[in-house]
Design a protein that fits this description.
The chain is α/β, with parallel strands linked by helices and about 250 residues long. The protein contains ten helices and eleven strands. The radius of gyration is 18 Å and the shape is globular. The two termini are about 30 Å apart.
Length: about 250
């Protein structure tokens, strides 16, 4: 399989404008993400897809291939699709490398790429909910799976409900999983899902991936031993640095 990693990076984040350019111990977030992605062994190429010349110039400055995309994309998925089209090279899969996870482990990317076997339409990662607090955090998307580890539903609520069981013990009585946001898309599927209209489920949960499920696309999940550390606000950088010591 020929696989490209694309890092969507937009400037106009509502909660953190200019986030890709934020410095973390002297190195920008987008550079850290790019360098981590380049350490993955199963990606044939890595590029940055952005709508902003400031990000593009900065990324080119540290040697990253850059594609300038439309500023009107509603999601990173759409930005990946345009970047793939503009790059002019043929690939079998696209891995959407999250641009706000500067300490993403390359092995996590390789785990996604290794599962791209030509049959998988869309693939993403999950990790177990190991505490009551995480399980009931509405900021975390939980996953309901079938026996083949294909997604039945994503929800900010806790599904299934464990009847006659104390909620604080649910994570001990059932294997609940939360979503980790790295995606791989088979190229033909990526083209199709970016043409879909917003659906009722996506509106209700504000989760883009429900649009794909609602239209019958299959999403495969693999379990990850790595946690995700996304940065959504400037304060998240300080919180993360208390846990992780960057190079």
């Amino acid at each position: 399989m020929k696989i490209i990693g694309i890092i969507p990076a937009r400037y106009a984040s509502t909660r953190f404008p200019g986030k890709p350019l934020a410095l973390i111990n002297g190195k920008s977030m987008i550079q850290r993400v790019y360098e981590q992605a380049c350490k993955a062994k199963l990606l044939n190429n890595v590029m940055v897809a952005t709508d902003d010349t400031r990000i593009a110039d900065h990324a080119a400055g540290f040697g990253a291939p850059v594609i300038i995309t439309s500023p009107h994309h509603p999601s990173g998925t759409d930005r990946c699709a345009e970047a793939l089209h503009l790059c002019g090279e043929r690939f079998d899969y696209v891995v959407n490398v999250q641009g706000d996870e500067p300490f993403l482990d390359p092995e996590q990317i390789d785990a996604v790429a290794a599962a791209c076997d030509g049959n998988v339409e869309i693939l993403t990662q999950m990790t177990k909910c190991t505490s009551h607090e995480v399980l009931f955090d509405t900021g975390e998307a939980k996953i309901v799976l079938n026996k083949n580890n294909e997604v039945l539903f994503f929800s900010r609520s806790v599904i299934p409900h464990l009847k006659n069981t104390d909620e604080k013990e649910w994570h001990l009585k059932h294997n609940y999983y939360r979503h980790i946001g790295t995606y791989a898309y088979r190229v033909d599927i990526l083209e199709k899902i970016t043409k879909l209209s917003l659906g009722a489920l996506e509106k209700a949960e504000s989760l883009e991936q429900l649009r794909w499920l609602e239209n019958g696309f299959r999403i495969k999940c693999i379990e990850s031993n790595f946690d995700s550390h996304a940065i959504d606000t400037p304060g998240d950088i300080d919180k993360l640095l208390r846990v992780i010591k960057p190079d």
